[in-house]
Design goal:
Length: 108
Amino acid sequence: MAEGVPHETPMVAARLERDGRLAGHTGQRLSRALVTAATAGADRTGLGHYARAVAAAAYRRSFRDAGLAIADAAESLPESDLFEHMVTLGRRQRAATERLAALQAAGL
C-alpha cells in the first residue's frame, strides 16, 4: 500500500481485490487470513453493529457508484442502450437493498 494511505482492513481488502489478488482458491485463503487477523481479539458483542455499519457504508457507496455509472452512460452509450443500462443498475440496487434489509432483520 502507498505511504500515507489508510491501512485499515477494509482498505487493504479493497486494494487486494482491485489488484486481483482475492480471486480463486489462493485469494479466498488470503481473504480468510485477512478477516482472521482483523478480528483477532475483537469484542464479539460489537461485531453486529460493526457489520451493519460496514454494510450501510457500502450500500451508500453503491448508490454513488450507480449515479456515476448513469452519468458516464449518458455521455458514452448509444441512446438505445441507456434505459436498459439504468434498469440493470436499478436491479443491482434493489438486490443491495434486500441484502441490507436482511442484515437488519437478522439483528445485525
